[in-house]
Task: inverse folding
């Protein structure tokens, strides 16, 4: 069948550009600056220049941050309803001007009008509607939180307006003000959005838009007046931002790259799966962070399925993005085309089979044909690197466990698509895949009510849903944290002889690895002095090797994560029971270490905290969202994995329990460094654990130098998160900086203290959120 051309008119969009003399300044404090130091924005479909934009300077970023700071009281003073009305107006305006936005986006980005018109615009408007609702409900639903403050937001070029709405809508709903940087290639719809802000009555300084290249992003990231950075882009730049913000106290969310698996089982609806694949890897020319770029197909149907895929690829229409019947548009820039071509060439050089349908590429502009690669090894560059183009790499598997293994064979963890007619198989596979989103019998589904974001090197934090709102808020309890109590962490030097005890037998406080007492690999011990200066005991000095052994043991204890929440709760209750049975002994230990006058209070609070998290273990449930599609999206609170924990020096037993209990209650396994100054009550706990049915490897305890051990935890490739709460500002900054290597999640206390007795500061959903990550599983139903 032949198709005639069905071009969408670009008259209005070109007129809008003409109306601005095709030159744009910066949008700061509700005013446009004079265009200066211009750079060009081109149409990737034909290479023509569309407009020129201003490269913002550091001084411009300064002005934008100041304006945002000034606007905070105004915006927050409007209250939830006031903000909701403005955001509702923004949503309406996006709808009223949707075609202008869609055409402008297509001209600027090269994606097809079908996608901008039917996907990007409706989703962008939906984001503002949904978050207008959160603004309205904020005081009720987030009563214990406040807005973070001034938020810096940086986005890439693949979904310019949609990413803008994902960033700006939740930030505004929560009462923040923003300094937003669009991508250099695609800033035009952000300029049009600025006009809507004026029309919708957004107060001056609430939304500031600064254009330019990575230097502008960097200026925002490093500005001391910015309280939070929300970034979407490459893992490489995400890492730089993690390092740059380390120790600054800035809140951070990172939405980074992916290499998402698209898994097809032999019982799947194969034609449905082929269409899903088209939406997964050829949507937006594959320039999608969650593109299903790795096809994993069951061996028994491999040939049949790949033949169907090839037949469908022959029918994909590539050409003018403004033609309403095109499936594949232009790549954003020739640079991107070269990058994709180089990766595909590397596959050819490695002997892979590279197949492309007969397809005529337009003479001008930036194009790449839909491509299927087979015969790649699992370690091939095309199987591991994010190609970010219309290139699919296919592999086969035999069994469901093998599918999971292949799916997880990547440093990323953004999304996955699972195709099978067996709901039981699909729901068995979904939790096993390390990814923030799993689409069952569907692909690339998004909605404002459902969180989106990654595991592992795909970043942390979520956009959308309740969890997305929390990224833009700070718990009020954090503001109430006390200054750090002074605890002498080192030996006092002035050693007094211990009082003579007729029953004394030298007792060595050992470390605890894999459910067994362990001697330090270094064979060094360090003295622990009591409050009265007397030598209390000597503890092992843990080293890199001990941490390695502990991490290995923690990984082996994965059965704890798959155990039922009821089972984990029972173990926590049992630990509390056994601690209570030895309360006097623990109280005496605390008194001897810290000189506490009321050590029983700390033991009692520790027992209560164990009960508290045992209670939460089977109640920290997920949610079932009802997005506007036929289906449900189940938001699961999953364990993070293996967490390294550095405990506080104050309240050495309660601090330890307050961090370890929530982590293990939700199924994590931990490697814990107890208080460096007062480690003994934590080391004594192994006797309690041993009698409480806690499986070996779930809790591992390594005593020693907190700085050195924290460094090892933060750089260990098989640790998923690091928490540090010993009051060392430098040490916390280092943990954040070093964790950038594998983009671990971090929770650090900085130089402030924490009232470990306070349920608000040391308990509640805010702590549980650190111990979990949300996975959204999309389950469509019906025919
Ligand atoms: P980049 O990471 O290069 O750029 C993203 C944004 O950051 C752009 O606005 C860019 O500016 C800016 N930037 C560049 N350098 C710095 C810096 N040092 N400090 C602060 N900001 C900086 O990604 P791309 O634009 O190349 O986008 C493609 C990548 O983004 C892909 O790898 C893709 O996986 C990822 N991505 C992830 C998504 C997700 O949701 N997880 C969604 C979309 C894309 P400029 O445009 O001027 O270079």
Result:
């Amino acid at each position: 069948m032949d198709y005639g051309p069905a071009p969408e008119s670009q008259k209005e969009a070109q007129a809008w550009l003409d109306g601005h003399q095709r030159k744009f300044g910066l949008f700061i404090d509700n005013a446009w600056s004079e265009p200066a130091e211009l750079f060009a924005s081109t149409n990737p479909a034909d290479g023509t220049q569309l407009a020129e934009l201003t490269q913002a300077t550091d001084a411009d970023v300064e002005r934008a941050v100041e304006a945002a700071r000034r606007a905070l009281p105004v915006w927050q003073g409007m209250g939830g309803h006031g903000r909701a009305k403005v955001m509702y107006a923004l949503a309406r305006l996006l709808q009223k001007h949707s075609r202008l936005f869609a055409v402008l986006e297509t001209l600027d980005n090269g994606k097809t009008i079908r996608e901008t018109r039917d996907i990007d615009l409706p989703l962008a408007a939906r984001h503002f509607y949904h978050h207008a609702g959160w603004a309205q409900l904020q005081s009720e639903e987030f009563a214990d939180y406040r807005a973070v403050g001034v938020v810096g937001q940086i986005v890439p070029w693949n979904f310019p307006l949609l990413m803008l709405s994902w960033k700006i809508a939740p930030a505004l709903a929560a009462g923040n003000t923003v300094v937003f940087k669009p991508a250099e290639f695609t800033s035009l719809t952000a300029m049009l959005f600025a006009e809507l802000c004026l029309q919708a009555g957004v107060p001056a300084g609430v939304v500031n838009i600064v254009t330019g290249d990575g230097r502008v992003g960097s200026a925002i990231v490093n500005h001391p007046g910015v309280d939070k950075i929300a970034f979407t882009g490459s893992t490489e730049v995400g890492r730089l931002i993690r390092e740059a913000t380390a120790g600054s106290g800035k809140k951070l969310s990172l939405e980074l790259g992916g290499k998402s698996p698209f898994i097809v089982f032999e019982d799947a609806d194969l034609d449905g799966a082929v269409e899903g694949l088209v939406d997964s890897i050829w949507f937006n020319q594959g320039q999608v962070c969650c593109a299903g770029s790795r096809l994993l197909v069951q061996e028994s149907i491999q040939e049949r399925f790949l033949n169907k895929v090839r037949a469908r690829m022959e029918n994909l229409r590539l050409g003018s993005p403004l033609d309403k019947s095109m499936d594949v548009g232009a790549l954003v820039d020739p640079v991107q085309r070269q990058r994709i071509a180089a990766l595909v060439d590397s596959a050819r050089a490695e002997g892979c089979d590279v197949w492309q349908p007969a397809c005529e590429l337009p003479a001008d502009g930036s194009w790449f044909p839909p491509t299927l690669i087979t015969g790649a090894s699992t370690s091939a560059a095309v199987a591991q690197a994010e190609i970010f183009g219309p290139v699919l790499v296919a592999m086969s598997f035999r069994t469901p466990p093998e599918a999971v293994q292949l799916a997880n064979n990547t440093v990323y963890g953004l999304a996955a698509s699972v195709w099978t007619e067996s709901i039981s198989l699909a729901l068995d596979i979904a939790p096993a895949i390390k990814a923030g989103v799993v689409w069952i019998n569907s692909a690339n589904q998004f909605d404002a009510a459902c969180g989106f974001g990654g595991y592992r090197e795909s970043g942390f934090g979520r956009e959308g849903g309740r969890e997305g709102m929390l990224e833009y808020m700070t718990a009020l309890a954090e503001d109430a944290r006390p200054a750090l109590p002074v605890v002498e962490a080192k030996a006092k030097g002035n050693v007094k002889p211990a009082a003579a005890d007729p029953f004394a037998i030298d007792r060595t406080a050992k470390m605890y690895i894999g459910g067994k007492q362990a001697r330090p690999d270094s064979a060094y011990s360090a003295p622990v002095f009591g409050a009265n200066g007397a030598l209390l005991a000597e503890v092992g000095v843990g080293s890199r090797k001990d941490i390695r052994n502990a991490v290995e043991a923690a990984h082996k204890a994965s059965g704890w994560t798959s155990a039922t929440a009821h089972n984990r709760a029972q173990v926590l209750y049992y630990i509390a029971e056994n601690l209570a049975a030895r309360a006097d002994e623990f109280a005496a230990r605390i008194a001897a270490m810290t000189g506490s006058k009321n050590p029983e209070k700390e033991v009692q609070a520790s027992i209560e905290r164990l009960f508290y998290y045992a209670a939460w273990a089977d109640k920290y449930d997920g949610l079932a969202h009802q997005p506007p599609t036929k289906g449900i999206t189940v938001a699961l609170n999953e364990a993070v994995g293996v967490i390294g924990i550095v405990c506080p020096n104050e309240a050495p037993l309660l601090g330890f329990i307050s961090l370890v209990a929530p982590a293990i209650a939700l199924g994590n396994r931990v490697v814990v460094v107890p208080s460096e100054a007062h480690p003994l009550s934590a080391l004594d706990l192994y006797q309690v654990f041993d009698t409480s049915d806690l499986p070996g490897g779930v809790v591992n305890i390594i005593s020693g130098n907190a700085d050195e051990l924290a460094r090892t935890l933060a750089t260990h490739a098989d640790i998923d998160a690091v928490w540090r709460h010993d009051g060392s500002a430098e040490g916390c900054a280092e943990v954040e900086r070093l964790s950038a290597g594998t983009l671990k999640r971090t929770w650090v206390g900085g130089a402030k203290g924490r009232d470990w007795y306070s349920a608000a500061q040391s308990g509640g959903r805010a702590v549980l959120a650190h111990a979990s990550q949300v996975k959204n599983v999309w389950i469509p139903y019906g025919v």
